[in-house]
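User: I'm putting together a teaching handout on how sequence relates to shape, and I'd like one worked example. Could you take Carbohydrate kinase from Thalassospira profundimaris, show the sequence you're using, and then write out its predicted structure as tokens right after it?

Assistant: Happy to. First the sequence, then the structure tokens directly below it.
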Amino acid sequence: MNDTTIDVVGIGNAIVDVLAHCKEEDLTRLNLVKNAMTLIDAETADSLYAQMGPGMEMSGGSAGNTMAGIAALGGKGAYIGKVRDDQLGQVFRHDIRAIGVQFNSAPATAGSPTARCLIFVTPDGHRTMNTFLGACTELGPEDIDEDLIKSAKVTYMEGYLWDRPEAKEAFVKAAKVAHEAGRQVSISLSDSFCVDRHRDSFRDLVHNHIDVLFANEDEIKSLYEVETFEEALAEVRKHCKVAALTRSEKGAVIVAENELYEISAEPVAKVVDTTGAGDLFASGFLYGYTQGHELPVCGQLGAICASEVISHMGARPDADLKELIAKAI
């Protein structure tokens, strides 16, 4: 068995985010579904970008955000994702390495450009995402660094990447490599629309390959096609070693076999932008989990990190997360 030199290796869509404030009526005018993540083509991306207000650009992607949080907490992280050898690809590569995350995936020299996500943030802080996946769609089994997977305590994957067969193969390969090395595998379901599209294959993945599952209330109900959170809770605990289920202002519920812990949401003076809340919850939880903390502490760390990221624009931490979690640790 290889020694673990990495706490978490993330696999996901390597995306550069473009965020801008908008009014509720702008979503209606642009025919956008509030709070959803919608996949768009290059033409639509150009059109929406032209209609956005003043914005800010930063490297993003769900798993990339989670890895940024883990690095900010002091954890050792690595990332696997596909970018093109273009300007946005260089931006993503620079940003993720600059925060201390190992990123050695070779950029593509042909094909689609680096992905971008256009995020419209309404006055209530909620975000509506429109994603052109670009080079992300070309990630496949050949991009999985087996030695890197073997060296990580946990391999963490984002559900957003689940749309193409090659990505599914990459996920399953990574999970098998991790388990053969005695490591654990985690996934975030990412979005209820994503679950709706791939419910059967998601269930197969969760039931047969996942140790630690992250989902919000809508996603877990969609996965099991039930009406209530309690019904979903009963189902998921049959299939995962650990499930961390977030419920916005209601906090979170952590379940593991016969254990159940309710985690209170951390207070926030003002919700500015909910982009990345689930990603940073996973950061805090996985950091605690890989450092050997008890599940209630892991959940509290997740809640602290999520509360920090929703207090400002952008999906990556601004404050010193180490300082914020010091009392909880």
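A couple of points you could highlight for students: The chain has one domain: 6-325. The first strand starts at residue 6 and ends at 11.
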